[in-house]
Amino acid sequence: MSKFWSPLTASLVPYVPGEQPKDKTYIKLNTNENPYPPSPKVIDAIKAAANADLRLYPDPTCEGLIQAAAAYYGLPAQQVFAGNGSDEILAFAFAAFFDPAKKLLFPDITYSFYKVYAKLYGLQTELIPLDEQFNVQVDRFHSDNGGVIIPNPNAPTAQLLPLDEIRALLENNPNQAVVIDEAYIDFGGESAVQLISEYPNLLVVQTLSKSRSLAGLRVGFAFGSEELIEGLNRIKNSFNSYTLDRLALAGAVASFEDEAYFRETTAKVIATRERVTEQVISLGFKATESKANFVFISHPSIAAKGIFQQLRDRGVLVRYFDQPRINEYLRVSIGTDEEMDALIAALREIAGS
Amino acid sequence: MSKFWSPLTASLVPYVPGEQPKDKTYIKLNTNENPYPPSPKVIDAIKAAANADLRLYPDPTCEGLIQAAAAYYGLPAQQVFAGNGSDEILAFAFAAFFDPAKKLLFPDITYSFYKVYAKLYGLQTELIPLDEQFNVQVDRFHSDNGGVIIPNPNAPTAQLLPLDEIRALLENNPNQAVVIDEAYIDFGGESAVQLISEYPNLLVVQTLSKSRSLAGLRVGFAFGSEELIEGLNRIKNSFNSYTLDRLALAGAVASFEDEAYFRETTAKVIATRERVTEQVISLGFKATESKANFVFISHPSIAAKGIFQQLRDRGVLVRYFDQPRINEYLRVSIGTDEEMDALIAALREIAGS
What is the radius of gyration, based on Cα positions, of chain B? Predict the structure, then answer.
């Protein structure tokens, strides 16, 4: 505490990102990074943009990038927003759309940043429990709320909500914004972007961090009706006019120009995920049905926290959440096949089978 | 307006950045960019960082960059914060330190983003008038306030407040944060960073955009006591863990490794500024005493708005602020000598001398 802090600052409980240890080299399966490098076209575009023009401000409207993302989904540019990672866009969305006078609804088990944003913007929250199988119970998102946010697939459970259930959620909540956080959608889900023309209250948030292998570049998008995009721009332009630097803009545009590479690398991640899921089950673990670039696993007789530590001792980092309902689970990012072979070998030793 | 906007969103009056016209090529003297490219070492470092590691998140603590900035000023790393441009850091500082129950004080003529941030965070404000010569009147910043922010040099007036007046301001306001926004300090001012060890309430904000020629990279810093830096980190980590991408981090570190280039280019800008100031005065203009990379000029008989438009017609962009007290002034960024020769030639035609 400091007497120079605002009351807000004193009240916050900041987010803690997955650890980035520097003590030794780990097999890093703890922050859902893509094991494959970004497209060579992205690297080339960034190198080309590393020039004297860095003395100039970037385009504050991100026009070229927004056009590229709009073309990818066949949307008009007015329905697209770009930001400094999807985390920044989520922060803007919490401020732009959620009504502090009512409760914001999100699943009890979900991306742990949501409750942090809610504190930052003074929002009341109501956690809607997942069912016993970790499914989002859409019918429990009653309409008397100040907004709804759901990741799809959900994190850390990895499970996908079918589009007809998203549609049901939107039908039940026509008077407030519904945000679908699709950070992991490219690993087997169907995007709700196709519903935007029907539902002016739907905001879909995506990122280049996972499926485009660009966590280090910090670029995310939101797609929605013009009025929602204008709302995001009002917050952004009251916060920072230039959120994306020239290099991020150049690299992000190029990432949309290499569809073949994107298809190839996401297919590899999916294939590895399916293989790893089978293997961990054969070792006695249970696993949720993942449509993301990670698996969510639990052993019936060995404590997750112990497995986490034993993996760490063997040089494999995964993510453990010490919170109710999921404290017997581990979230394991999908790495290369070699990395996952090392994981499986370590789990085989730990599980003693 | 949209029914999906929060009350906050509806209340905002967003900032409007200087225009970035795309209709033709202008001599661009309207956004205080540096006319010289960044150091070649910066370009090389960015190209080297454009590699497969972009698949990985950047270091959320910005450790290497913070160490470089700390070493530059001889501070411990715990007294340094890095952000996505100084605009983002200012936004964080408004949330972190200023007390909504009392009035935030800043000059009546100043960086126009301050009132936008204040709206975003629900802060009351009191504008303290500059005197007739546009000097900040330090003794009018009475101590019954929720915080103080002053740019030094001030913008758009370009005038510098001497360090002993900053010290007087700090002595008069020991119980709340005092933010000194030093975006332009390297063009002839003395930084208040040297006062940090004496005043735990002093936050100094700087940027690589101007004197390091990196407006396109989006990197800023704050320097202050550990408790102030912790306050900024609490807000940041409730907003976005990874505000600086890998390329910005790499380029920014390199910018501190080329002190000779920095000295040379800032000296050139200063020399051009001094020469241009003399020339505009000889054309009948008056000019404030600038310690920034721009001049603030006015003609006794020709309306500033007309000069602005006539310069634009001649392909020269400058900044005009249609607001009380300064609506007969133009803010003109310092470009290359060739660009400023073109400006002077155009002003000579317009002033008819």
Answer: 20
**Contact A247/B217, CB-based, under 8 Å?**
yes
A177, A2 in Cβ contact below 8 A?
no
Selection from B246, B348, B278 nearest residue B307 by Cα: B348
Put simply, the answer to whether B59 touches A20 (Cβ < 8 Å) is: yes
Q: Which amino acid is at A6?
A: S
On chain A, the residues whose CB falls within 8 A of the CB of B93 are none
Question: pLDDT tens for residues B318-334?
Answer: 999 999 999 999 999 99
Q: Give the integer Cα–Cα distance in Å for B35 and B211.
A: 10
C-alpha–C-alpha distance, residues B218 and B207, integer Å: 8
User: Token pair of B184, please?
Assistant: 């332009």
Run of H or E including B203: strand B202-207
Q: B338 lies in a domain? A: yes
Per the CB < 8 Å rule, is B54 touching A214?
Answer: yes
Question: Is the bond preceding B17 in cis, omega lying within 30 degrees of 0?
Answer: no
CB A203 within 8 A of CB A179: yes
Residues A198 and A270 in one domain: no
Residue B85's identity, in one-letter code, is G
Domain of residue B316, CATH code: 3.90.1150.10
Torsions phi, psi for A45 (to 5 deg): -65, -40
| Number of domains present in the structure of chain B | 2
The residues with which A66 forms a beta bridge, in sequence order, are none
Are A176 and B4 in contact by the 8 Å Cβ rule? The answer is yes
Beta carbons within 8 Å of B345's beta carbon, 6+ residues apart: none
B173 lies in the same domain as B294 = no
Q: What is the pLDDT of residue B353?
A: 59
Of residues B334, B332, B321, the one with CA closest to residue B108: B321
Coil/strand/helix, residue B102 = coil
> Has residue B23 been placed in a domain?
yes
A38/B52 CB distance under 8 A:
yes
Q: Are B94 and B113 in contact (CB under 8 A)?
A: no
Percentage of residues in chain B with pLDDT exceeding 90?
95
Q: Between A14, A50, A200, which is nearest B46 by CB?
A: A50
Q: Can you tell me the ipTM of this complex?
A: 0.97
The 10s digit of each residue's pLDDT in A280-308 is: 999 999 999 999 999 999 999 999 999 99
Which pair of tokens denotes residue A180? Answer: 């679908």
Which tokens hold the place of A84? 């400094």
Distance CA A306, CA A313 (A): 11
**The domain spanning residue A60 has which CATH number?**
3.40.640.10
Cβ partners under 8 Å of residue A289, min gap 6 = A158, A159, A160
CB-based contact A270:A303 (threshold 8 Å): no
Task: Read off the DSSP letter of residue B84.
Answer: S
